[in-house]
Amino acid sequence: MRVSNNKLNIILKNQIQKTLAQTLAEIKSGPEMDTLLKKFLTESEYEGLAKRLAVAYWLKKGRSYTNIMNNLKVSSATIATVQGNIDSSEMQKVLKSLEADEWANQWSEKIKKLVKK
Q1: Prediction pTM value
Q2: Residues with Cβ < 8 Å from 117, sequence gap 6 or more?
Q3: pLDDT (tens digit per residue) in 17-57
Q4: Which candidate in 13, 84, 93, 110 could, as Cys together with 8 as Cys, close a disulfide (CB 3.0–4.6 Å)?
């Protein structure tokens, strides 16, 4: 991602970042969020964000740095950065949500198989 060398006024920077966060928080559907992110981010920015989330999830699952680097094609520095933030309450909330979705999907598949019998 190309970053501008022109620095924003700190007050304006904080204000527009809070506005972005609030706007994203108000989006309730996955498809709506996906559309917004694809319109606002470049493909590589979107992929990078998705990879960082995957790194956090896989770290939580106990995967090694090498495994994550090879599968997600990220650097050890990226993994270390994510690792440094993984214990934050915000990240823990996101990871618990992902784990709940995973659990629900697993049980949904099991129930579908039982119903088909």
Answers
A1: 0.76
A2: none
A3: 999 999 999 999 999 999 999 999 999 999 999 999 999 99
A4: 13
HSE at residue 108, side-chain half, CA atoms within 13 A, is: 6
Contact 105, 112 (CB under 8 A): no
Q: How far apart are CA 10 and CA 2, in angstroms?
A: 20
The answer to whether 94 touches 53, Cβ cutoff 8 Å, is: yes
Question: Which two tokens mark 40?
Answer: 């606002």
Would you say 75 and 69 are in contact if contact means Cβ atoms under 8 Å apart?
A: yes
pLDDT class of 4 with cuts at 50, 70, 90: low
Contact 74, 27 (CB under 8 A): no
CA 36, 39, 41, 44 torsion: positive or negative?
positive
According to DSSP H, which parts of the chain are helical? 10-25, 30-40, 43-60, 65-72, 76-85, 89-116
Residue 3 has pLDDT above 80, yes or no: no
